[in-house]
Design brief:
Order of helices and strands: EHEEHEHEEHEEHEEHEEHHHEHH
Strand order of the largest sheet: 3-2-1-4-5-7-11
Distance between the termini: 35 Å
CATH topology of one domain: Rossmann fold
CATH architecture of one domain: 3-Layer(aba) Sandwich
Structural class: alpha/beta
CATH superfamily of one domain: NAD(P)-binding Rossmann-like Domain
Helix content: 25-40%
Radius of gyration: 20 Å
Strand content: 15-25%
């Protein structure tokens, strides 16, 4: 399928890349914008409207084959009230899905999150067969949005990506890049928990897989590259891209945790030291292949400067 795709969130971290990638793959893309701005490069057309208010979306979705919904309140917006997450992530998605159903859109692809399924860390390996147990307002709002999609008659798919890396990444990835670029040795060599990541390129390939897959889908799909890394391995990959040695000192995890707690960084340590490994079984069955390995992707990201 290479027809007309309506894309929300085209000015965001993921949406900007999706717009460029989908256009390169032969899709015509109509961007749905919340406020008037210059039309993003590569867009076939643009429609302005606020998804949080009941508006007539008929014109925006006229002749649209599929919707890719990447807009929403990001997890990095710490401190946002739970009602804001519900309004901007769940209720807006439900309204857009209802409008898409009225417009007879063929498929609705929703950018959800692994946090709709699990917390910031988890034992074992997360798969789509696990029951979802979100642990924060962001994750609960994403799961609520998925359930709103399931209540429609649409052929829908929800992508649950793990931490996404690429140019312009904020939050944890931005902090990780700062660490890698610092000249000092880092006392992180003793951390052994592994985390799954996914690049913008691999995530775009997953969206394309869902758009092209024969239906009906009507399911959630984890999106993760298949080579989870420890934090020391991530730092080493980033520093390799910078042309530097890893520079990691193997301080015991318990000692590092104590030091972080004594300096008021206990919460940060819990995020860093915890593991979250996920497997993309559903996407693999549909023929998805990641665009690159996480190790190579991180090195390439750092090399871009």
């Amino acid at each position: 399928m290479t027809g007309l795709v309506a894309l929300t969130g085209a000015t965001g971290f993921i949406g900007r890349h999706l717009l460029a990638d989908l256009t390169a793959r032969g899709y015509r893309v109509r961007v749905l914008l919340r406020r008037p701005v210059a039309m993003p490069p590569g867009a076939a057309s643009a429609v302005v409207g606020d998804l949080t208010r009941p508006i007539n979306m008929a014109a925006a979705l006229a002749d649209v084959d599929a919707v890719v919904h990447s807009a929403g309140l990001a997890h990095a917006m710490s401190g946002a009230p739970e009602d804001d997450y519900r309004t901007l992530n769940a209720e807006a998605t439900a309204r857009l899905a209802q409008a898409a159903e009225r417009a007879r859109v063929r498929r609705f692809v929703f950018l959800s999150s692994i946090r709709a399924q699990t917390g910031a860390s988890a034992p074992g390996v997360a798969t789509e067969a696990d029951a979802p147990h979100p642990t924060d307002p962001y994750g609960r709002s994403k799961l609520e949005a998925e359930r709103a999609l399931a209540a429609t008659g649409l052929d829908w798919a929800a992508l649950r990506p793990v931490l996404v890396y690429g140019p312009g990444a904020k939050g944890n990835l931005e902090a990780l890049l700062r660490l890698a670029r610092s000249p000092a040795p880092l006392p992180l060599g003793g951390l052994r928990a592994r985390r799954s990541l996914i690049s913008l390129e691999s995530l775009s390939a997953a969206v394309d897989t869902l758009l092209r897959a024969p239906g009906p889908l009507k399911a959630a799909y984890i999106a993760a590259e298949p080579d989870p890394l420890t934090l020391p391995e991530m730092i080493a990959a980033l520093r390799e891209g910078l042309g530097r040695r890893p520079g990691l000192v193997p301080v015991p995890e318990a000692l590092l945790g104590l030091a972080c707690r004594l300096t008021g960084r206990g919460e940060l340590f819990e995020r860093v030291a915890g593991g979250l490994v996920a497997r993309s079984d559903g996407l693999a069955r549909l023929g998805w292949e990641p665009a690159l390995t996480t190790r190579d992707g991180l090195a390439r990201l750092a090399a871009r400067g």
